[in-house]
Structure formats: C-alpha cells, structure tokens
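Protocol step 4 of 6: structure prediction from sequence.
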Amino acid sequence: MTRPGKQQSAAIGTFTVRPLDPAVDAELVHGWVTHPKAAFWLMGDASLADVEREYRSIAAHPHHEAFIGLHDGEPAFLIERYDPTEVELKGLHEAEPGDVGMHFLVAPTDTPVHGFTRAVITAVMAFLFADPSVRRVVVEPDVTNSAVQALNKAVGFEVLREIAKPEKDALLSACTREQFEAATGGNDR
C-alpha cells in the first residue's frame, strides 16, 4: 500500500491522503457518490449500506484500495487505486510492469474554487507516482465524460483506445511518470 502523502499547491492549499475507513467514512462518501454531479461514479441510487458494503469489499480486496483526500485537513476527494490486471481492466488492458489503475472523485461543493479539480488530479497523480514501483497510471473514463477527459489530458494522459466495459464505453488512457512531469512542469511535489 502506498503511504499517505502530502502535496502542496501554493494557490489552492495543502493536500493529504489517508486510507478510507468504511465504518467511519461511509456516510461522507455516500453523500459524494450519490450527488448528481457524481453521475459517472454510477452509484446515484446507492443506499448508505450499499456504499459501506462496497468500500468494505474494496478494503478487503488484495488488489484494490480506497483513500480519502484532504484539502487543508478537510475531506475533499476520493481516490481508488487498483491493479488493472486484477480489477476493472482485467482482460481489457495489455498491462505493462508498473501499471496502476486509478479513479478519483472530487466532493460536491456549493462554493467551487477555480482550478481546484485540476489541483486535486495533480495531487492524486503525485500520490500514485510517489510509489517508485508505479511507472504508468491507467484510467477508463466514460466516453461521454468530457470534463474528466480534459483533466486527464492536462496532467499528461493519452487516449490509447475505446473499450467496452459491462457498465460503459470507456476511453482507456495512460500516463507515464515522464508524461505527468512534462505536463505539470515538474510541479508535482
């Protein structure tokens, strides 16, 4: 498991990451994943019990982890890290050594901060690449999720191809450490 880490963004604040505790965090995460802005998370109709069960399952899985991201000490985003040869992309992805899969979700807010979501994805990527065994991050956003596709491109992801998953048509995309550093100007620390 990657150790929780700290990332700075001078204009936005401090980001830290801690493991998600299903018993403690289920209610918080339920509010995030069922919010209309989280439609691509595909849990809009989930009950609190459904969310707790899902994150207990992730916590027990040997190839899947969930984390709460904090902004200046307050819960602000969700990260899922997974082994794409075992979870989500098994059989759909030609894995390379050092591949890790990722999902992220920014908590809904009534007071959006310009640049916040980009700062979050940058912090998420820096968190993942802080593990020296990670050479490439792979994602599979919905083909219609243009907002996350633009964010992915901004931090160095390139679309590899469209894939059909049971729940969606997705754009398999990847970002190497070098692509991330080039896209962010090396400001990932």
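Step 5 (inspection) to follow. The chain has a mean pLDDT of 90.
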